UniProtKB/TrEMBL annotation:
Keyword Transferase: yes
E.C. code: 2.7.1.45
Ranges of residues in domain Carbohydrate kinase PfkB: 6-302
Recorded family membership: Belongs to the carbohydrate kinase PfkB family.
Molecular function as annotated in GO: 2-dehydro-3-deoxygluconokinase activity
The protein's name in its UniProt record: 2-dehydro-3-deoxygluconokinase
Gene3D superfamilies: 3.40.1190.20
Top-level lineage group: Bacteria
Keyword Electron transport: no
Length: 312
């Protein structure tokens, strides 16, 4: 890893407690611990695809903050700009396996990351990076975190750093009108936008995938990648639309983190000079492989694993 990360992500990491047995969360007796938080997943995915990557956040000086520092150290994700708050409690969430599918319960109110503010954004690191990644979740957790995200985008634009943005709309975090206003403004400030089809429809009002991609592109970003789950993705670059076929996996068991992995893998390949179509094909394979294991981070594939799958 070089001293100056090429890719910087800003957001909230959260420890994941995934119920080990089927049944409602209140009856769960044991949990498998994992790592979550869309922007942290992104950073790990980019690092595993070979990019020099750094992360900006606030965590507590609690055990869960330590768990994340250890993760980023293992993964080679630079944490020089991670602030540890004395007495802070790093956010956590619980996944239950109810009869209607997975349930997500978040304990993140008052988390250190919700106190992210413009002063936490390291201008020199943003200027020295080649790509800055932000997400709608980071903007939804608090007004100061939303201000931090806009400040980071502004710094990136002033210093010629590419801005990538994933709306990652979570209806539980904010009302849709506020989300739409902030997300669509962020799209205008971004070079590359990576929504999924559901949030794309909700935010743009368009329906057909091509129309959704075009609605985002009309706001200014040069590149839009619309993620469509098992249907793959749609790339719009300089006005040309290309379908990215899904990579067929035998048994998808857990889609969590697939979108974040797509984003991180795409960013990593782009910075190596890959044409967007090639980067998107690589990212679709990386994201598909992520669905074959439980948890967000553990199944994120290495560069070698993606290349092996692509050549098979
Ligand atoms: N079942 C699947 N089979 C093959 N590829 C998949 C599958 N599910 C997801 N993918 C790949 O992963 C990419 C991202 O998945 P998805 O569209 O679910 O993103 P997302 O909704 O942003 O995810 P997230 O829940 O992480 O926010 C897809 O564009 C596709 O390339
Ligand atoms: Mg997503």
């Amino acid at each position: 890893m070089s001293a100056v990360p090429d890719i910087l992500a800003v957001g909230e990491p959260m420890l994941e407690f995934n119920a080990a047995e089927d049944g409602p969360l209140h009856a769960a007796g044991s949990f498998t611990v994992g790592y979550g938080g869309d922007s942290s997943n992104f950073a790990v995915a980019a690092a595993r695809s070979g990019a020099s990557t750094g992360y900006v956040t606030r965590i507590g000086d609690d055990e869960f903050g330590t768990a994340f520092l250890r993760l980023w150290e293992r993964e080679g994700v630079d944490a020089a700009h991670v602030v540890r708050e004395p007495g802070g409690r790093t956010g956590v969430y619980f996944i239950g396996r109810g009869p209607e599918g997975s349930t997500f319960t978040y304990y993140r109110d008052g988390s250190p990351a919700s106190r992210l503010a413009p002063a936490d954004i390291p201008e020199e690191a943003v200027a020295n990076a080649r790509l800055l990644h932000l997400t709608g979740i980071t903007q939804a957790i608090s007004t100061s975190a939303a201000d931090a995200a806009f400040h980071a985008m502004d710094l990136a634009r002033r210093h010629g750093t590419l801005v990538t943005y994933d709306p990652n709309h979570r209806p539980a975090l904010w009302p849709v009108e506020r989300a739409r206003a902030i997300v669509m403004r962020s799209v205008e400030l971004s070079d590359i936008v990576l929504p999924n089809i559901e949030e794309g429809r909700l935010l743009t009002g368009a329906h057909a995938p091509e129309a959704v991609a075009e609605a985002f592109a009309a706001r200014g970003p040069r590149t839009v990648v619309l993620k469509m789950g098992a249907d793959g993705a749609l790339l719009s670059h300089d006005g040309t639309i290309t379908r990215i076929d899904p990579y067929r996996v035998e048994r998808p068991v857990d889609p969590s983190g697939a979108g974040d992995t797509f984003d991180g893998a795409f960013a990593a390949r782009l910075l190596e000079g890959a044409p967007p179509v090639e980067a998107a094909r690589y990212a679709a394979v990386a994201a598909a492989l992520t669905t074959t294991g439980h948890g967000a981070v553990r199944p994120i594939p290495s560069r070698a694993a993606v290349e092996q799958a692509m050549s098979a």
